[in-house]
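Dear colleague,

Thank you for sharing your sequence with our group. We've completed the structure prediction you requested, and as agreed, I am returning the results in plain text so they can be pasted directly into your records. Please verify that the sequence below matches your submission; if there's any discrepancy, let me know and we will rerun it promptly.
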Amino acid sequence: MSTPSDNTDSLLRLAQDGHPDARRRLLEVYRGRLAQMVAARMDPRVTARLDPSDVVQETLATASQKMDDYLTDQPLPFYPWLRQIAWEKLVHEHDRHLRAAKRSVAREQPRGPDISDASVAGLARCVACGQSSPSSTLIRGETKRRVREGLNAMADADREILLMRYLEQMPSKEIAAVLGISEAAVNMRHMRALERLRKVLESR
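Please find the predicted structure tokens below.
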């Protein structure tokens, strides 16, 4: 049985060989994942002004324009490369729509746009798997506040690892490519950050 990674590798080889349909298929394969990532990570203050699908469409258009350079150098695995383009567009839109804020997004880029209460609640449910009655307790405002505070208190890389793992469903290999660290480091930091967040919930 072929895997998404196998299919991507095959399409990349075809694209390098000049097959015209391979590039389009490469981008379409990841449209759904990009949409999930953008929806989960878009700052709620921007959502009212910008549809996540617009960010995805702009991402795919930019990726299409940069495809020749990517196929030559392949600086990252394909999805992390696409995600990086989408992330840069999210940060740009956050800056453009909220430039009246005290500090620009450019100075906050490592942490990036804030995430919605729905995303915080979703992360809390994942972290609390196995605890009693998560559906009835984790959506409460106090719990979301504590989880958000726990995330904000973490190192940027630890916070991002949790968000990429649970909100974006990214495997360790892709997270490592995005952050520029080893898979072993991703797994170690993931377990450490997960334990910290669970302690936040248990102290409730």
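Summary note from our side: The chain has a mean pLDDT of 82.

Kind regards,
the structure core
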